[in-house]
Amino acid sequence: MLRKKGKRFPERARTGDSYAAAIADALRTELGGSHRATKTVMRWTGASERTVKNWLSARCGPSGDHLIRLARESDTVLATLLALADRNHHMVGGDIRKIRDSLDQVVRLIDDTFPIPRDSISDIGPTEPGS
Questions:
Q1: Nearest to 70 by CA among 35, 34, 22
Q2: pLDDT for 46-65, tens place per residue?
Q3: 126, part of any domain
Q4: What per-residue confidence (pLDDT) applies to 124?
């Protein structure tokens, strides 16, 4: 118990409010604000419905094990957590891999849509300057 006399504790910025809001925003961005989003987060974390609704409404943020489980399941939550810790540069590798995978899918889609006969592939190659 604190004594009634003496110095007051210094005021400091409350980071919990911005943390809870950032995680809530990340979850709503990825999953939306529907009941289905609540059920998805419950499945990811094992948390109760009331707890997840508190996270989604930014009343409080997940802690410990729940936060780790969310970051494991959601790239958006992981990116938000790293941004809050000023460690954004750690997401670059994951972003590059996602971009590469997307480009691979686009190339496969183009190949499936517009098949090129094998014998004409050599005709498509790069041309030399001045040709």
A1: 22
A2: 999 999 999 999 999 998 99
A3: no
A4: 57
Between 7 and 74, the more confident residue is 74
d(CA 130, CA 70): 57
Torsion of Cα atoms, 27 then 67 then 81 then 76, to 10°: -30
Per-residue pLDDT, 62? 94
Question: Is 102 inside a domain boundary?
Answer: yes
Give the domain range for residue 101.
Answer: 89-116
When divided into structural domains, the chain yields a total of 2
Quick one: pLDDT band at residue 4, thresholds 50, 70, 90? low
Cα 101 to Cα 116: distance, rounded to the nearest angstrom? 22
Which parts of the chain fold into alpha helices (H)?
A: 15-31, 35-45, 49-56, 64-73, 75-84, 92-113, 121-124
CB 38 within 8 A of CB 52: yes
CA distance 24 to 63: 13
Position 122 in a domain: no
